[in-house]
Hints:
Pfam family, one: GIDA
Number of helices: 10
GO molecular function: flavin adenine dinucleotide binding
Radius of gyration: 21 Å
Protein name: MnmG N-terminal domain-containing protein
Distance between the termini: 23 Å
Oligomer: single chain
Helix content: 10-25%
Keywords: FAD, Flavoprotein, NAD, tRNA processing
Structural class: alpha+beta
CATH topology of the largest domain: FAD/NAD(P)-binding domain
CATH superfamily of the largest domain: FAD/NAD(P)-binding domain
Strand content: 25-35%
Subunit structure: Homodimer. Heterotetramer of two MnmE and two MnmG subunits.
Order of helices and strands: EHEEHHEEHEEEEEEHEEEHEHHEEHEEEH
Amino acid sequence: MTGLRYDVVVIGGGLSACEAAHAAAQLGCETLLLAADLGHLADLSLNARMGGPVRGILVREVEALGGLSGRAADAALLHIRLVNETRGPAHRALRAVLDPAAFARAIRQALAKVEHLTLQQGVVTAIDRDADAAPWVVAVCGAPPIRAQAVVLALGTALRQHICIGRDRETRHGAEAALADRFAALVPLARYHIAHPPLIDRATIDVRRAEALLGSSTPLAFSCAKIAPLPPEAMAPIYRAFVQRTWRDQLPSYRIATTLATNAVVASAWSPVTRGLTSQGPEGCDPLEWIVVGVPAARQALILESASWSAGAVYLRGAYTALGVDDQMRFIATLPGLEQARMLRPGMLVEYDGVAGGAPGSDLGVRNQAGLYAAGAFAGGNGNEEAAALGMM
């Protein structure tokens, strides 16, 4: 590499971008990871989960190929257990809840040690064909243009992002959002959405009325390597006990279910989900509104999962919703043990632009655009496991 020329430029700061940049650099390619905010690399703050049936296999495969996700997860475990224990070996899998701060810190520390990898913070303003030697040129706000043989678009949910909470619709112009019109000429785009659950104050929940799901009492790990604790100087005081040994007692999760009263509140409330939403969502993460409308008498299982070691907050997993704040508080109050619960952050629906289905080829290369690739949520992926695997590919 000479000047601002790289073999590979990865645009984005999520888990998929980190795995893609790491994989390219490990192959000896001079690689640039270009993120809008390096302080938020591998941020899993809205979905700090990993594993489960099928998805757990993806984590193991990424680990076998030398990826980062499995080992970073092992350094950030809040709760891990083996699911489907009573079934055959092919059905068993690890499922984990992670501390987002510890996971991101582990990823950043790993990337800092990788040769042939440069990290740069910057806002991408354009990506164009280059008439010079390199096929692509990436324009960055306030910085010289960067030429690359290959560009990986791992933009996550940033492109034309809209946050929907009831009738409120907030447009968040992420660092890459200005690229939408330019991308439309290069890549066929489609509209996607993903819903997130509300965050609840742990102290206001009566967990005695819920079924406890205990974490493993014996060490479990996604990676084949020995669990490597993070150095004490990199951790907040709350993590000291975790640093001193390779295993820490796991925090429990709790299982509850919706009631007929819950369904009545959800069915009567206004939501963009039931008002002509046309964007495509991931399988297995249907908004609660769709479930209730489809089967009014259904009892939806919900899981209370810790958000971190120290925050005192839990996610209401399974309650993926775009209801308004007042309506969310109403349906939460109908759940067993949550009658007096305090909501710290409402659930929300995030709409964004991503690559249309069929546009990426089998190698994730954008059709008719040699040297241009897509990965992660931007390529239609769902969840941290798919993000990591698509980035690795």
